[in-house]
Specification:
Length: 86
Amino acid sequence: MADPLFARKPMALLLSESAETGEHTLKRTLGPISLTALGIGAIIGAGIFVLSGLGTHYAGPGLMLSFVISGLGCAFAGLCYAEFAA
């Protein structure tokens, strides 16, 4: 039962398949929007879970507004990541 879950192709088979198709590189599948979303998720994701308790001491009830403002800054950082990838 565990064999189909952990099935692997032999390396010789992978090399012969790549020689037949002539493709030896990975394809670019992430576009600027995907990379921007990935960057924003990485930047904001840790901050929401780690700093939400600490942020209430500084921002108080305006914590959501604080996260929206920081999200805009993170969006610009995500656009920089997308520019690096292009």
